[in-house]
Write a structure and sequence with these properties.
This protein is 31% helix and 23% strand. It is α+β, with helices and mostly antiparallel strands. The two termini are 19 Å apart.
Length: 266
């Protein structure tokens, strides 16, 4: 295996949601039987205004539930949202309504676009920091980490160039940490998924607050030229990374037919 540049970072804290999970201790057993769980709606954090709560889809509720445990309402963070399919199931239902000759609500349409959940999150948490929304498939979850690490490095370099005296701007101060939110839900049977490994067995959201230094789980990410064909796409790789977090596994390699990425616990 030929590795290239290494990226060091720290997972300051993480939180995840899936049906039947109440706390991090539940994940070990859940990962061994997640294909047999029953659908369930996530609880909505109390910080979300009632008006917005009515607009949250089951997937959005899950995203808010997981992310809420990694944010401080007094310290907004840049966020990288990453999902292969987003609200595509809601888009399908809207198209079926059109096929039946029913009118489509403009609000319903706006809540099906790929950045709808991030927009609602920004409103609910009064987050005016940089928010990026990625639509990742075959490349898996690695680009979300690369994007977040790029934001951290960008703001780190900006602080180095800033005057040594005086206070940093609010944007510079909060960019010491970035929130990554990985999420997907099962596709409707309408969409053919075989022979591609792209469909999640159940809804799952993983939120990670990362930084370049500090307390937490230190990790190293590097790219490998090794080709892999059996790791699945974005939706399935979320489960692989969760297993990596909650077990004693020291490394995780995920990729596709072009290249792969390796996460290493330090």
């Amino acid at each position: 295996m030929t590795a290239q540049k290494d990226f060091d970072f720290v997972v300051r804290t993480w939180s995840a949601w899936a049906p039947g999970i109440k706390n991090q201790a539940d994940w070990q057993g859940w990962l061994n039987a997640y294909s047999n769980v029953s659908p369930e709606k996530a609880a909505i954090p109390g910080i979300v205004p009632k008006l917005l709560q009515r607009r949250l889809s089951p997937l959005a509720r899950a995203v808010f539930n997981a992310a809420d445990n990694c944010v401080d309402s007094n310290k907004p963070l840049p966020v990288v949202f990453s999902s292969a399919h987003g609200e595509v199931n809601k888009s399908l239902e809207m198209l079926r309504c059109m096929q039946r000759g029913e009118e489509i609500s403009p609000t319903a349409f706006t809540l099906t676009v790929h950045n709808a959940i991030s927009g609602l999150f920004s409103i609910a948490y009064s987050n005016h920091q940089e928010i990026t929304v990625l639509a990742l498939g075959q490349d898996g979850i690695a680009p979300a980490f690369i994007e977040a690490l790029g934001l951290l490095q960008e703001h780190h370099d900006a602080r180095d160039r800033a005057p040594k005296v005086g206070a940093l701007s609010d944007a510079g101060a909060v960019a010491e940490e970035v929130l990554i939110v990985l999420y997907d839900e099962p596709l409707s049977d309408f969409y053919p998924s075989l022979p591609f490994a792209l469909d999640a067995p159940t809804s799952c959201v993983l939120a990670l607050k990362i930084s370049l230094a500090g307390d937490g789980l230190p990790l190293q990410l590097c790219r490998s030229s090794e080709h892999r064909n059996d790791d699945g796409e974005h939706a399935l790789q979320i489960f692989s990374f969760l297993k990596f977090l909650v077990t004693d596994e020291q490394s995780l390699q995920l990729g596709n037919h072009r290249h792969s990425w390796v996460w290493q616990k330090k």
